[in-house]
Automatic annotation (TrEMBL):
The chain crosses the membrane at residues 21-44, 90-111, 118-143, 155-171, 208-230, 250-273. It holds the Pfam family BPD_transp_1. It is a multi-pass membrane protein. It comes from the Bacteria. Keywords: Cell membrane, Membrane, Transmembrane, Transmembrane helix, Transport. It comes from Streptomyces prasinosporus. This is Carbohydrate ABC transporter permease. Its main location: membrane.
Length: 288
């Protein structure tokens, strides 16, 4: 530890056995407290679906189910047609992710490296849309989608998702920090603009592309108002809408189980790609 580094606990205190014991005790307690605060709601949902309806509504509540049962999950899978609605959500989220990644990456690359005329003005106009409340855009978006005949069509989700100013700005900021000499070397070797984007820029941008991907997928997965408006056909509704529409006359344990199942894909996605997500956040905070 360098002499100029100041810490909450001095090295002299940590060098003593009692100081180390107090330090590790406090650190372990704080970590366990935060872990409990974050994980307890998840535990409550997972175990709540394994209780009987009477036990769920009991006061005071039981911390551990008296009789463990997975019938709530089986009933939720069948009664609420979760496979159909989960597949609808996957199709809508995957399409929105692909459209957003392609168009936002292309626009960010153009604004960052191609430097078009009035590029700063265009970027300012794009960022100005972040000041407009999302609710104010619902009616114009709906009228546009209805005029194009895209109601009950996944394109009604995919096309509006392309216009994401935040993700575009995030990509542009990352592209601005890419080494200029690498791009110039590719240009000297004869690589065109598209080849440079595909072979140089995108491989170097994997961290930020991972972060943008997560933002795009989560935004569609958790959205409720817009899918509710554009999908009147219940067979094409995503899981976020179906959980509300089909919750009438459904036991509480079955509804809790359905919510747990609906959250599993996003949790699994984070666990699989957590290294890329954390690397992208770290890169963005360092370069920004």
């Amino acid at each position: 530890m360098s002499s100029g580094t100041r810490t909450l606990v001095s090295p002299a205190v940590l060098a003593r056995p009692r100081g180390r014991a107090v330090y590790w005790t406090v650190l372990t307690g704080v970590v366990l407290l935060f872990a409990l605060a974050f994980l307890f709601p998840v535990y409550w949902m997972v175990t709540g679906a394994m209780k009987s309806p009477d036990e769920v509504a009991r006061t005071p509540p039981t911390l551990v189910p008296e009789h463990w049962s997975t019938t709530g999950y089986a009933d939720a899978w069948e009664l609420m047609r979760l496979p159909t609605h989960l597949w609808n959500t996957v199709v809508q989220a995957a399409g929105a992710w692909a459209f957003q990644l392609v168009f936002c990456t292309a626009a960010a690359y153009a604004l960052s490296k191609l430097r078009p005329a009035f590029g700063a003005l265009i970027l300012g106009g794009i960022l100005a849309t972040l000041m407009v409340p999302a609710q104010a855009l619902v009616v114009p978006k709906y009228l546009t989608v209805a005029d194009l005949g895209l109601l009950n069509d996944p394109l009604a989700i995919w096309l509006p998702a392309v216009a994401n100013a935040f993700n575009l700005y995030l990509l542009k900021r990352f592209f601005d920090q890419l080494p200029r000499d690498v791009l110039e070397a590719a240009e000297i070797d004869g690589a065109g603009k598209l080849r440079t984007l595909w072979s140089i820029v995108l491989p170097l941008s994997r961290p930020v592309l991972g972060v943008v991907s997560i933002f795009a997928l989560v935004a569609v997965w958790q959205d409720f108002l817009w899918p509710l408006m554009v999908f009147s056909d219940t067979g094409k509704q995503p899981i976020s809408v179906a959980l509300v529409q089909l919750s009438q006359n459904i036991q509480l344990t079955v509804l809790i189980a359905a919510m747990v199942i609906a959250g599993i894909p996003m949790v699994a996605l984070f666990l699989v790609f957590q290294r890329h997500i954390i690397a992208g956040i770290s890169a963005g905070s360092t370069k920004g």
